[in-house]
Amino acid sequence: MPALVLLGIFMIYPILWSLWMSFQVGRGMAFSFGGLTNIIRLTQDPVFLRALSNTLIFLAIQVPIMLVLALLFASALNDSKLWGRGFFRTAIFLPCVTSLVAYSVIFKSMFAGDGIINQVLLGLHIVSTPIPWLADPFWAKFVVVAAITWRWTGYNMIFYLAAMQNIDRSIYEAARIDGVPAWARFWYITVPMLKPVILFTAVISTIGTLQLFDEPNLLTQGGPSDSTLTLSMYIYNLSFRFMPSFGYAATVSYVIVVLVAILSYIQFLVARDRRA
Amino acid sequence: MTRMSTGLKRSLAVALASVSMFSVTAASAAEILVWCWDPNFNGATMEQAFARYQAEHPDDTIRVEIFDKAAMEQKLQTQLASGTTEGLPDIVLIEDYRAQKYLLSFPGAFEPLTDQIDYSAFAPYKVAVGTVDGQSYSMPFDSGVTGYFYRSDLLEAAGYTAADLEDITWDRLIEIGVDIKEKTGETLLPIDPNDAGWLRIMMQSAGTWYFDEAGNLTIADNPAIKASLETYQRLMNAGITKPVAGWTEYTGSFTSGDTMSTFTGVWMTATIKANPDQSGQWGVAPIPRLDGVEGSVNASNLGGSSWYVLSSAPQKDLAIDFLKTVWGSDVDFYQEILVNQGALGSLLAAREGEAYQASDEFFGGQPVWQNFSTWLGEIPAVNYGIFTEEADTAVVAQLPALVNGGNVDEIISAINAQVSQQIQ
Where are the beta strands (DSSP E) in B201-250? Predict the structure, then answer.
């Protein structure tokens, strides 16, 4: 019973309140019921559409890269003959327990106009003029993707490693005796056995990316020219940077809720179909 | 036993005395909490202002909390929106562009000072920024009068003198920049594609803004805004700028000599003078005006801010008295912060003071303060309204298209569409 009360106060009430908020229009603390105004506004809002497409681009590019990388790292580090694998595991996992602000500051200085990345690229004659990493829409997206990948790959890798250690070694031994090459053992044994974990990490990463806020906010503030603006940042801007528009911000946040629900459902469907 | 009790009595007496002393101080002493964003500029001036006040009020203290500017604005807005006043400061610094937004979206959050401060003593355009429905809320602080800060040594190396920068247009400056680049290889300006500041400077120099006096959107069919965007495009495509990302890279660029000049508010003086080894190598010229735009002058504004007292402030009366005493009338104080921080206040009487007449060796002996004061008087007044942040965001979103040679008319209609959508 106390649990239900707590759940009511801290979960159900805010959810219902925000749903009610999403139908309010007005400035600052003075708002009134606006019906479908906010939903109509969504469809005509170029900034919202940019934020939505940026978020989906991050999702479509970053999540597959990260999960494949994590799988490859996990598979390599699962090899009991590998020297120093404890060290490598820790090294790859470490970024996701690093302070967000500290690493953003370092990324920002690394990718500055005269930062170390440009200096190395110039020194190796890979580029002739410094790349404006954070001042160009394309490269800014690239830096954000690189930053998130660096931070979260190790986290996903740990899930895969744990799951791999639950796979019975005798399956691999049998396959080896039958002459199955290493890539085929990975593709036809490891990956299918990990399917539930891959589904789990895919759903978690999708939700995380749809809520992406920290990296673009600290690295690029959404710029240049809104090229790294995400839905979460837009919600923040609507509430705390612009003339406060809490109702509309709530509407945008419900877009994320709906997207998460749809994408997670699709991922479950895909996983189930393959199993059948 | 007697000795013991004497010792005990004595220590008891000392303890009692110190307790009573402490409670006396606790009763009369108060601490004013201030939020602002620049340790070298507004933070430092606030500390100095209080040092003067403290001579009369020795028990009171001040605590100045410095934030990142955007972080502070967002913290303030979040806290005001939450409705809890605990943790808010007594005095907060607000940039002029945002003042109306705070005053209008959080009615009652700020203390009206109309009856406390003689506003006729201040530059009228500064007072207007902090006034809503006839009530004034601000203690006007620094002006954002703009200037063109340049490295005079690098300019001379290319064969130009300070006179070549007097009362010119932006197009003439672009010509000069191209010529310098050819002769010496120096890059004229750093430019941050995430900052529409220069467009705001150009707009205001022509007496126009994103909004008119009544707050209506004026972006479409505004010749001055069109000319500003076209000028910006020509400037960017002339090959005389270096892209930078963020404030640190921007200021680092011209203080390190990587680029040779910048357009900015007078408040940048402290940052530029933070490199004493460059003394004598700098100059300040008036900003260029827009070509072919009627009413465009060689003076404008960028930023500028004022102090506001929160209605909920625990030390409200003390804070108001302090602002009134020092910021509201102390002419000598304004001389002090002008010399130390390059802070050009908006108390009109301060301009008659000694420091404003002095020349500055750092800027090659130019009478920079007198110049800035003159330009200050020429700034066309505009209405910043409550949606400058939204309009700025729309402009910034179009800057890459502008730089890549996009059609200015299409860009204007895109900006107009976005702003009209955002301000509903």
Answer: 241-243
